[in-house]
Amino acid sequence: MPAARKPHISNLVIEKFMTEGPKVLFDPKYTSTIVLLLWSFEIVINLFVITRVQYTEIDWKAYMQEVGGFLNGTYDYTQLKGDTGPLVYPAGFVYVYSLLFYLTSHGQNIRFAQYIFLVLYLINFMLVARIYQKTMKCPPFVLVFMSLTSYRVHSLFVLRLFNDPLAMLVFYISLNCFIDKKWYLGSFFFSFAVSIKMNVLLFAPGLLVVYLVENGILQTLRNLLICVGLQVALAIPFLATNPQGYLIRSFDLGRQFFHKWTVNWRFLSVEMFADRRFHALLLAAHLTVLILFAAIRWRRNISSLFQLINMKTRWNCGVLSIQPDQLVTVLFTSNFIGMCFSRSLHYQFYIWYYHTIPHLLWSTKYSTPVRLLIFGVIELCWNTYPSTNISSLALHASHALLLIGLWRNNGCVLEPATIEEKPSKDD
């Protein structure tokens, strides 16, 4: 009787690939493998964009004019301006773009600036990937969609050179620090991100709740002191010259946006878009939804929320040791609520929440096809230029579906239901 023939090695490889291959795309344990492959693709894609797609001037020249005035000795914020108008960002922006001013021959070597932003894009990608690897929430194939499908996000980095991507990059540094329980260092980078562009403050309500839950009141105050202290330290030259001018210009929450650039409110009339009563209504809705999420979805109820500031039991002790998924869910949701009720979203603002969308979608109980559909519609809306009534309405509908999905996800994120509660020092 002839001996059984051993299977050919190529057949073994094919069989192994057929059995193990799908796991690489669907099992979160393989996230790092996908990330390494995508990182290589990202280098090629960004180099292609830089060399083959024409650079279009939007704000880079104005940025260079603004920091050029500072480098020439002007510390009065009301006197710092460029072709697009006055400087409206906090002091951290001035220092970051002053460095870029010198590195790019006073802003003239735009191609070198694009290569700098390519490196920053790759760093940002790795920071985001590490967050997804730590949370183990999303299947790796989602990172493929997030990485390779958005021309807009690549453009914001290497074709537009906006400060929005830089602010978000520093925020993701801070979030990685928070995941690693390096709270003081995370607070430092969080505040530095705010100093580049204050949209990062949309994460602040969620971060405050996280501070209190994990660290208690005393440590929360210390972290807040780091945040405020850095803002003051960075602003010293400007505060010493014209403090009122600095505060009004750099943290102007009432700044009026132009209707022609809006992505989310195109269907409104110009008059309605600029109406202060409409802005007040959006702010009220924003605060209401935040409070509801904080009291009912992040904590058990309003009483449970207020227990976080109980001086007797929580002065020196938090409620629980927060896990990465809990931390990221709360911060990303806090930011997303702000996006939903924003007075206006411009195209560069997409980076404010783009990399958070997959995590938020996989925090709902929607099926995978529905999640991908919502993600796809959001991407389509942001890539419709100029925006239309339909694209704006579709964006709001997608946001509403995602917000409802987050609300309907059962369970309180920051309650010790599955994690042992930290004992109070008074117990």
Give the biggest sheet. Answer: 2 strands, antiparallel
> Which segments are poorly predicted (pLDDT under 50) over 5 or more consecutive residues?
none
First CA to last CA: what distance? Answer: 78 Å
Strand percentage lies at under 5%
Radius of gyration: 23 Å
Instruction: State the order of secondary-structure elements, H for helix, E for strand.
Output: HHHEEHHHHHHHHHHHHHHHH
Structural class: mainly alpha
Shape category: globular
Strand order of the largest sheet: 1-2
Please estimate the helix content: 55-70%
Strand runs, count:
2
The total count of helices amounts to 19
Mean pLDDT: 91
Summarize the structure.
By secondary structure, this protein is mainly alpha-helical. It is built from 19 helices and two strands.
Structural description of this entry:
With 427 residues, the chain is an all-alpha fold. 65% of the residues lie in helices and 1% in strands. It is built from 19 helices and 2 strands. The chain has helices at 9-26, 31-52, 60-71, 91-103, 110-135, 141-148, 151-158, 164-179, 183-196, 204-241, 243-250, 270-274, 276-298, 302-306, 311-314, 324-340, 357-361, 368-382, 389-408, and strands at 81-82, 85-86. The chain has a two-stranded antiparallel sheet with strand order 1-2. Strand 1 (81-82) and strand 2 form a beta hairpin. Helix 2 (31-52) runs parallel beside helix 6 (141-148) and helix 16 (324-340) packs antiparallel against helix 19. The longest helix has 38 residues, at 204-241.
